[in-house]
Amino acid sequence: MKALSGFYYVKSADSVYQCRGRGLFRKKKLSPLVGDIVEFDIQEDNDGYITSIHERKNELRRPAVANVDQAIIVVSAKEPSFSTLLLDRFLVLVEANDIQPIIFISKMDKVSTEELQEITTYQEAYQAIGYQVETLSVEKEIDLNKMAPYFSDKISVIAGQSGVGKSSLLNKLNPALSIETNDISLSLGRGKHTTRHVELVAIGEGLVADTPGFSSLEFDALALEGLSACFPEMAARQQDCKFRGCMHVNEPKCAVKQAVEVNEIAPFRYEHYLQFYQEIQNRKPRY
Q1: pTM of structure
Q2: Largest interatomic CA distance in the chain
Q3: Known binding positions for GTP
Q4: Which domains does the chain have, with CATH numbers?
Q5: Which segments constitute the EngC GTPase domain (predicted)?
């Protein structure tokens, strides 16, 4: 449930045990992660040693958490401004780790009629791809009832730019948390992270990693060939391209480019794909 200063806090039934890792983990360069299913020996006074780590279905490096079922991506309608580019960056990182994304658009009660129309158009575009998208208002308690079922029986991570209301949201869902929140810095357009370690906290009937979210938004582990698979609407058309391994950039008879031309794929999504493609292509090699 929590890793802190060389101790691992393991929940079994209704008790939490403070454990250390076995020396053999260090030899194998293997560290228990928050979210791991482990076996452990209990010593005296609820202390113990972790003896084995079960196979993980996935793991994130930043935040360091394993066996994540879903990522709740929180983007704000305003302050900071709604950004499809940032949302798509989060979606690609989540898809690359085989995690189910759910999108929440917060602060909907702060937008003008014109801004509302624009955000609704984008909301429909993401829903057409197959993503679940919910909208939230700052003040409405009813919105919390709308959110709670999403957490049931799942390990979730919360992702999103600072200042979109992630911590405030979790505090409302579980008032016992008292997660520190920092106001957004308007000059920088970002807030300061106040969370220092990863911990799973109870929200509704599920568990949420209480972390600052993705501290790195770089595509440093994503191969160029894997990028289009992180766009579900492109992955669905991959087989229809003339060339196997089509990258949907310069190739002729590309089903993805044809779908963009007839608006079956949103042009802004394709533009972001090209932008990320360029970024990965220009990435400096790491040795």
Answers
A1: 0.82
A2: 68
A3: 106-109, 160-168
A4: 2-55 (2.40.50.140), 65-209 (3.40.50.300), 224-281 (1.10.40.50)
A5: 66-215
